[in-house]
Specification:
Blueprint lengths: L10 H24 L4 H22 L16 H19 L17 H21 L12 H21 L15
Length: about 180
């Protein structure tokens, strides 16, 4: 009998759909705003936009709901944020050419919303600095590790949107935006 996921047997197809939709929406919005881009410009723009939205969520989500988890064995909102930071740290190190393996940060080391927001901000800043320092020609050879980091974060971005909705909160990027003059 094949192995069955006891937590959520149907999560894998949903995970694929959420990831694909998140990436498509981010890519479409980015491309529509900027027109044709080089691979380096596309990776940098997608990384920047996605991380802006995740940081907005980290800052916006109510502190009393940071420990919300949809079920046993599923990461809490706080744990997802720390996991995203782990991915950015991996990307920064790999992007600098360091021999690196995925080192998962321990969410227990980040007990407050403020410490988690600071961690995510630092991970974004460090990864963005590495990405900015990466020569454009590098992206004609490989999109790694950046494509994997973006895909990973987009998957969890979709997960965080679901956490918002289940808690009766509209995610920041779905709220009406003030008109620009």
């Amino acid at each position: 009998m094949p192995h069955q996921n006891k937590i959520a047997p149907s999560i894998h197809p949903m995970k694929t759909i959420v990831t694909a939709l998140s990436m498509a929406l981010i890519s479409a919005a980015t491309l529509a705003a900027q027109g044709p881009r080089t691979p380096a410009q596309s990776i940098r723009a997608n990384f920047t936009q996605l991380n802006k939205e995740v940081l907005d969520m980290a800052k916006d989500f109510p502190p009393d709901k940071y420990n919300y988890r949809p079920g046993e064995g599923v990461r809490s909102f706080a744990e997802v944020m720390v996991h995203i930071a782990s991915g950015n740290i991996y990307g920064a190190k790999a992007g600098r050419g360091e021999q690196v393996k995925w080192d998962e940060l321990d969410p227990k080391d980040y007990k407050t919303k403020e410490s988690i927001v600071a961690l995510v901000q630092k991970s974004v800043d460090d990864a963005a600095a590495t990405l900015k320092a990466t020569p454009d020609e590098q992206f004609s050879k490989t999109l790694g590790p950046w494509m994997a980091v973006i895909e990973h974060e987009a998957e969890h971005f979709g997960q965080l949107n679901a956490y918002y909705r289940v808690n009766g909160i509209v995610p920041p990027q779905s709220r009406p935006q003030p008109k620009k003059n």
